[in-house]
């Protein structure tokens, strides 16, 4: 196996991989979508904790700044993460 430094026991990893191999491409995409949404929710929780009572728009901008370049944020949203103290 190419995995190193993983704390999951090998027999569990084998079951997990076997389960992924049985999934259809649509099921795999759905899983990726669900995991992406979970990561975004965690990031939003961190943003809310750090910045307190900010607008929904600012929450979304700060979330976007985690994935997009500064130049993209400025060009598309006219919002500079560096000036906003991100």
Automatic annotation (TrEMBL):
The organism's taxonomic lineage, starting at the top: Bacteria, Pseudomonadati, Planctomycetota, Candidatus Brocadiia, Candidatus Brocadiales
Protein name per UniProt: Uncharacterized protein
Protein species of origin: Candidatus Scalindua rubra
């Amino acid at each position: 196996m190419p995995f190193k430094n993983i704390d999951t026991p090998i027999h569990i990893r084998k079951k997990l991989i076997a389960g992924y191999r049985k999934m259809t491409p649509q099921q795999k995409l759905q899983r990726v979508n669900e995991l992406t949404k979970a990561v975004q929710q965690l990031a939003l929780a961190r943003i809310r904790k750090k910045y307190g009572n900010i607008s929904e728009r600012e929450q979304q901008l700060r979330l976007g700044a985690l994935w997009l370049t500064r130049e993209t944020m400025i060009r598309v949203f006219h919002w500079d993460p560096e000036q906003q103290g991100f």
